[in-house]
Amino acid sequence: MLERGEVANSWRRERWDSLRLLTPNHQSRLPGYRYEGADPDGYMTMPEVVEFISGFAHASAAPVRTHTEVTAVRQVDDGYHVLTSNGELRCRSLVIASGACNVPIVPAVRAAVPSSIEHFTPFDYRNPSRLSEGGVLVVGASATGVQFADEIRRSGHRVMLAVGEHVRLPRIYRGRDVLWWMEACGIWNERYDEIDDIARARKLPSPQLVGTPERTTLDLNALSASGVEIVGRLAAVRDGRALFSGGLLNQFALADLKMNRLLDTFDEWAQTAGDLDVGPPERFEPTRAPAAPRLELDLKSGEIRSIVWATGFRPDYRWLEVPAVDRKGRLRHDGGVVDAPLMYAIGLPVLRRRKSTFIHGAEDDARDIVEHLARSLPSAAAAR
What is the pTM of this model? Predict the structure, then answer.
């Protein structure tokens, strides 16, 4: 196992200070290892996640070579030639476990933003003290974007949040964490080959959730109530003016509709599940639209001094010199079986199940991949 930094390196080096897991602690599980603390319904802080993953590496005696960065992988007759910062390796099979969040995505419109405005991504934002005084535009309203908007607004900055497609969820539903419902009713175990539009499912933004001791719901209504100005998707920047989409009402209606359909699924399952310790069904206030949402903003006026780009992430396969990546930089795979001999991937969105990118989703995916590898190795040896 090769790690470019230390165990849990991304959590140590590439996360903001206040970040907590979106999943409750009781869902932090790995093979033979799980959260054993006193707060099963809480959410791990960043240092606690580092401790949890490091603890698993120690308990499992995982053969991790730290501070070993892979610089190239090349296909050879008997497998793969792996070049690293600490020498070269040869292997018959290779598993890519580098995740989906290696590089922040920043849209091309950034190039048209006036030079007087400073820019941040989730990799270089740490806390509001790093921002200049003045207004902040947060672009993107998935989990990362709403958390940034909330934290920055609480620090005293004026905040504008540009909203496109998003997934709205309550933190608590009928007295239980919403992600407890996702697991209990089986949605998270739905396999990739059972999903009608798997390509779209893999591109969905992360749900608007935050992990807090108070188990707070952080949706657009909560942000509006705290003073965050909601605007539409950032469509363009022309002559120093940011132009926002006028489709907010449609985005709100679609997100509310999908949330209510999911809550209907929970309720239907609860009716058949027997005696559950949950409250009665609930429905939530529709997302409130601004009376007259702003459609443009003069970025040269000084109203906005900083932009935080919470516009997603992408994998980084620049080191993979094997023809298994498409023209958009996506790994070609079928449920983690890569389009290259005896090469696999794990930890990508909806890789084999809807839970694939969560800590507790790793075990089932790993077992499937190991079984496939075990079946494939004898035939590969015979072919040689």
Answer: 0.94
Dump pLDDT digits (tens) for 352-378. Answer: 999 999 999 999 999 999 999 999 987
Identify whether residues 263 and 356 lie together within a single domain: no
Which bin fits 22, alpha (ψ -120 to 50), beta or left (φ > 0)? alpha
Q: With bands split at pLDDT 50, 70 and 90, how would you rate the model's confidence at 380?
A: low
pLDDT tens column, 174-208: 999 999 999 999 999 999 999 999 999 999 999 99
> ∠ CA(157), CA(161), CA(167), 5° rounding?
135
Q: Which of these three, 313, 332, 364, is where a domain ends?
A: 313
CATH number of the structural domain spanning residue 283: 3.50.50.60
**147 and 251 assigned to the same domain:** yes
- DSSP character for 309? E
Q: Pick from 41, 48, 40, 39: which is nearest to 19 by CA?
A: 48
Using CA atoms, how far residue 180 sits from 141, 184, 188, 266, 279, in Å, is: 23, 6, 10, 10, 14
Same domain (yes/no): 222, 147: yes
Structure tokens at 321: 């010199």
